[in-house]
Amino acid sequence: xxxxxxxxxxxxxxxxxxxxxxxxxxxxxxxxxxxxxxxxxxxxxxxxxxxxxxxxxxxxxxxxxxxxxxxxxxxxxxxxxxxxxxxxxxxxxxxxxxxxxxxxxxxxxxxxxxxxxxxxxxxxxxxxxxxxxxxxxxxxxxxxxxxxxxxxxxxxxxxxxxxxxxxxxxxxxxxxxxxxxxxxxxxxxxxxxxxxxxxxxxxxxxxxxxxxxxxxxxxxxxxxxxxxxxxxxxxxxxxxxxxxxxxxxxxxxxxxxxxxxxxxxxxxxxxxxxxxxxxxxxxxxxxxxxxxxxxxxxxxxxxxxxxxxxxxxxxxxxxxxxxxxxxxxxxxxxxxxxx
Length: 339
Fold this sequence. Notes:
The protein is an all-alpha fold. Helices cover 63% and strands 1% of the residues. The chain has a two-stranded antiparallel ribbon.
């Protein structure tokens, strides 16, 4: 916090920084304990909204207030301290996201990073320079972690040998043998299942690429207008994935989409025309409605509403296609992971 505390305190004391550092540790424990992807997605959306308008949301304000109080600031209250709550939460998230990842599986921090990348990258810049600098640091760290996770999650798992069979004397012979067999073969089966899932993902994505066909367009993707092609390909391509999209998937989705064709969100929906209604049927409207800041493009496609920060920024066809792939990929993984 020593680097960022001056955003809300012009002249902080050492004990003030120490207390906020203790609060950061407590907040990070709360974040890492989030037990479903949607909790992390909603936190990311609330944080991005707070950055945009300076108001701390209920999704994190109460937890942060309690962490600050427990860290030695007994008189702290949420009222009139929105900026401090937002900064402390952002710093907590930034430190977690920037850490080396434990490659043991999908985590709440991985989801938080992906959702923050999606939400923050759609927003316009913040006028207050210190907040904008922190926002950019969180954005860059979130993008780097998400791309790293996408690549690491596709590495095949070494298939181990069957482990030793150990039969506890306390159990009946039949159940002992069954339990021992399951325990001995569990690592082998787990590795085979994970590798098979990745194999299936690659095959389905490859077939989709080779077909060059979209049910939404009822025609070839390569024949469509660049804006329409990019967005439809991003959503279609993500539906074939079981992990977050990596750079290779982005390259395939944007293959043949030329740079240029800049468009605002409103202009993009106009370009989609009647295809928007068809696309909306492939989007889980209930999910994206819960987090329109995390899924600004998908939420606009599902509802037709473009009233959100960043909608006025012109983005070219390739950027819209990459965004469609990212948002749809996050949504796909959140649903597969039990969100």
